Amino acid sequence: MTTTITVIRGDGIGPEIMDATLHVLDAMQLGLSYEFADAGMVALEKHGELLPQATMDSIRKNRIALKSPLTTPVGEGFSSINVELRKRFDLYANVRPAKSFPNTKSRFPSGVDLITVRENTEGAYSGEGQQVSADGETATLVQKITHRGSERIVRYAFDLARKTGRKKVTVVHKANILKSTSGLFLKTAREVAAQYPDIQCNEMIVDNTCMQLVMKPEQFDIIVTTNLFGDIISDLCAGLVGGLGLAPGANIGTEAAIFEAVHGSAPDIAGKGIANPCALLLGAAQMLDHLAQPQQAERLRAAIVGTLEAKDALTPDLGGEGNTMSFAQAIASRL
Known about the structure:
There is one protein chain. The protein is built from 11 helices and 12 strands. Helix 1 packs across helix 9. By secondary structure, it is of the alpha/beta class. A hairpin with a 4-residue loop joins strand 11 and strand 12. The two termini are 20 Å apart. The strands form 2 sheets. A 10-stranded mixed beta sheet has the order 2-1-3-12-11-4-5-10-8-9, with helices on both faces. It has a two-stranded antiparallel sheet with strand order 6-7. It has 2 domains: 1-94 and 244-335, Isopropylmalate Dehydrogenase; 113-240, Isopropylmalate Dehydrogenase (3-Layer(aba) Sandwich), CATH 3.40.718.
């Protein structure tokens, strides 16, 4: 059986890491076929818009997309193409694993294995109600949290814990100060947690969470939180395991899911063939989990780990002398 996915090659280093990722996926012989679609600067140049309708139609039809980094032009268009995609497809769950890998520049070469589950559609990060006063002296922003948004993201986190055999969910909030918005999120989280007696639930204020992550990250299993806190915490977690070059992300809704590398398009090294493809490859592993192929997902992760352990054709950011495609070929050889 063939599964068709939408592939967005992206901007900057995007096409290079996507070619490397597809090379590895092809080596796995998974029966995947690709429908290529444009977004970002490439789409703007070719079609005159950042998110062409044909791209939206492709994602809606295939329901699965693998996406390289996109560049949002400064001063025009959407505040963020990624945010726009999340809104249009109601991709309410942002799922960011952070796991220790061998031979990386990390203060925690072992012991980190956690997932940040971030509400993806509301709260301060969504940018709703942004305005600046006529005199330029005051800027305002609406921060809206709903019971529905909070309930479904917390339930997603607890369901994920059950599905993956994890035992603890940490609800991260600032309800001591933000008593209305963060307070509603925490109240809703407690209601949901009560329905999962087999999963330990604890609560932690966001500033303490950041300190605890830096000091003792092994205490965390799954973190669930609101949009802005999750954006910050998930990047902090990437720093624990070697940086954004090892950070994948999934944006999941009921009708579609988009899997990606969470780092930027890195125009300064575009075309040099030295970009690390690991983040997008790990995003592809998340995609395989979503496609109910967990054994293939673990097979891919094991090949990545084996290549890192062997220091085989690694890219310069990992201390090697290889390039984007030689690294991918070394991973593919282990499959």
